[in-house]
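Supplementary notes for students who missed Thursday's class. We covered one full example, reproduced here. Read the sequence, then the structure, then the short commentary at the end.
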Amino acid sequence: MKKWLLASAAAALLSAAAVAPASAAYKAEHRGGTMRLVARSAGGTVDPQINYTLQYWQIYQGLYDGLVTFKKAAGAEGFTVVPDLAEAIPAPANDGKTYVFKLRKGIKFSNGKDVTVKDVVSSFQRIFKVSSPTAGGFYSVFVGADACLKDAKTCTLDGGVVGDEAAGTITINLKAPDPELFQKLALPHAVVLPADSPMADAGTNPLPGTGPYMISAYDPNKGMTMSRNPNFKVWSEDAQPDGYPDVIQYDFGLTDEAEVTAVQNGEADWMFDQPPTDRLGEIGTKFKDQVYINTLTAWWYAPLNTNLAPFDNLKARQAVNYAVDRKTLVNLFGGPVLASPVCQVLPPGFPGHEDYCPYTKNPGTKWSAPDMEKAKQLVEESGTKGQKVTIIAEDTAVSKAIGVYLQSVLKEIGYDAEVKPISPNIQFTYIQNTNNKVQMSISQWYQDYPAASDFLNILFGCASFTPGSDSSINISGFCDKGIQAKMDAALALAVTDPDGANKMWAEIDKAVVDSAAAVPLFTPKHVDFVSKRLGNFQFNSQYYWMVSQSWVK
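Structure (token representation):
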């Protein structure tokens, strides 16, 4: 009966997915009003060079700018990199190792100060000084980055980022050509901030930006208010168009159920968290014109700490991979219309993806069923049977349900397991810090940009593992020097042979899967549930719903 109900809800939502987003040009009569967003919790620090959550990256679109950015357009066009604070995307020089950016004139921060070359240079230094999560993964290719990674406080990026105030240019010098440089520069971690910004995590104190909105109030226990930036003027519709609402109010503290009800009643215009499974049928039938479903290049996974017992043992990690019933997990998320079983790191359709599924009843290219007999055998062989395992989940309906299910699986194959849900506001940073000794957790990863390295090198590369840090995105603590060497070779090859590099990434994907450093769970689709008064919904493949580009009646 439960499976039938899930299928019915999914079918209803599938029909809702056919509703096409509006694409008409903005109309002056729609400008104004207050748009209200709701979420279970805040997303942590508001520092754009530190925060690494989908929740805040989505809203940073209208707050901050970099030298380049992803185009503010619907669909896959949103993966296109366009000039932003820079006048143009420069041609490479010095065999692909040097780029000279010309800074636009007349752009101001929300505090009224002009954006200068000095601000740009300081912002790149700040990436390292604040220990941004991607300093070592994305920006270590800069000349001078090695010294910055060794001693962040004295970081100058000497010779790597050079400003010329008179010419209005910023020259970036690389140690080696990087085929993904512009995508990395288009991310929030590379936005331009005032040179006098604190060289430490800004926490709850918003930093001035250049977008059409600014954060005028922030209390992570209550909410965030984004009001118009009085100093904003459109310099590029592709990079940073003006927004519709006068105020965007983001309230925190609602349960998933309360979020759905608030949108239904017109008390909120959009909910960040995915609707609980038991509400899908209702919103997919009664409110189908207010639902948008989009496929994501993302995965849900369970990192296994390769440096702590029992998962410092390969056979123990493989056992969990064999034991997990991914069909059950798909149903916990909302059924096959909203998720698909996944066996590997790279999502289907992503560069470098080749079907591979070793941990299943019938190993091959597709997942079929769990193999509990094999799992129990591996636990016995590992000598870890009976050990205690704590699973850290987010305190949300879906994540808790997945945690409880994984707990039952671990118990069935021989472990003493428990699940510990904690607030989404701190869960992501908590599971990254080795001081918290997290053995197993539930997490999600949504692409930074469409490249295989963004999944494999970031999540399982040696440079992404920083013991004792809240910004250690390699949650598994996995570092295999042989695999890392292949990643480095693939990155280098991509400069001249992208197709050849993707073939290498396919092999790397298989090697990481064989290491069982994490349990792939499923690939999700995203459900956006909006109010009746919200119009011009547009979904950008890079940053998802473009908040400021919708209007409210």
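Commentary. The chain has 15 helices and 22 strands. Residues 498-515 form the longest helix (18 residues). If anything here is unclear, bring it to office hours.
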